[in-house]
Amino acid sequence: MKTQINHTAANSIILTTGMFDLLKEQVRKKKLTKFNEEKIIRELKGATQVLRSQLPPDVVDVNTRVSLLDLTDNTEVAYDFVTHEKARRKNGTESILSPIGVAIVGYREGDEVSWQTEGRIKKYLIKGVSRI
Question: What pTM value is reported for the model?
Answer without folding.
Answer: 0.88
